């Protein structure tokens, strides 16, 4: 069946054949201009997604590719995402998403992965990223280093999607606002909850 709909501000079109009695499916479709701000208020930008697959419920995957335009979480920081993945579903109350791809920020490309399970409208997931340019996550100065990020995705009490996790960072030099020196040969770790951060440790030498 040829379907057209709106999803979080974007337009969707799909050819869908679902046999609930035989638990079989044949789907292909595209979502254009999905508003990421409607998924998490910290982000501004849009995404496009293509899907295709056929087979049995919760056995055969639906393949997907995705890409964004410029996405912002700081006013002067933008990035793009592109990748692919698969969906396992019963086309009712259970969806499992496994994706992998790259975050592109200026001249750097950082591999990331995400696994997300949704049951009865509630999310539970994990993500991992090797951020090769620390400036992607630090909105000030000219720094040189990298960050490894691990975290989880969940539903808050207001039903908005939340993220929290842990990051380890290291590098050649790190700067701070209103501080005249860099921290050289640094390493440290922090906790985060959405865009709120708690620094747990930081070691290095005082630079110029």
Strand and helix map with partners:
Blueprint: E1 2-7, E2 10-19, E3 24-35, E4 46-56, E5 62-68, E6 71-74, E7 77-89, E8 94-105, E9 108-119, E10 122-131, E11 144-155, E12 161-174, E13 183-193, E14 196-206
Antiparallel strand pairs: 1-2, 2-3, 3-4, 4-5, 5-7, 6-7, 7-8, 8-9, 9-10, 10-11, 11-12, 12-13, 13-14
Report on the architecture of this protein:
A hairpin with an 8-residue loop joins strand 12 and strand 13. The mean pLDDT is about 90. The protein has strands spanning about 1-5, 10-20, 25-35, 45-55, 60-70, 70-75, 75-90, 95-105, 110-120, 120-130, 145-155, 160-175, 185-195, 195-205. By secondary structure, it is an all-beta fold. The radius of gyration is 20 Å and the shape is elongated. It starts with a strand and ends with a strand.
Nutshell version of this structure?
The protein is mainly beta and 208 residues long.
Distance separating the two termini: 65 Å
Q: What kind of assembly state do the chains in view correspond to? A: single chain
Going by helix content, strand content and strand pairing, the class is mainly beta
Total E-strand runs: 14
| Percentage of residues in helical conformation | under 10%
Beta-strand fraction estimate? over 45%
Label the overall shape: elongated
Radius of gyration: 20 Å
Largest sheet: 14 strands, antiparallel
N-to-C order of helices and strands: EEEEEEEEEEEEEE
> Number of DSSP helices?
0
- The average pLDDT score comes to 89
| Low-pLDDT windows of residues | none
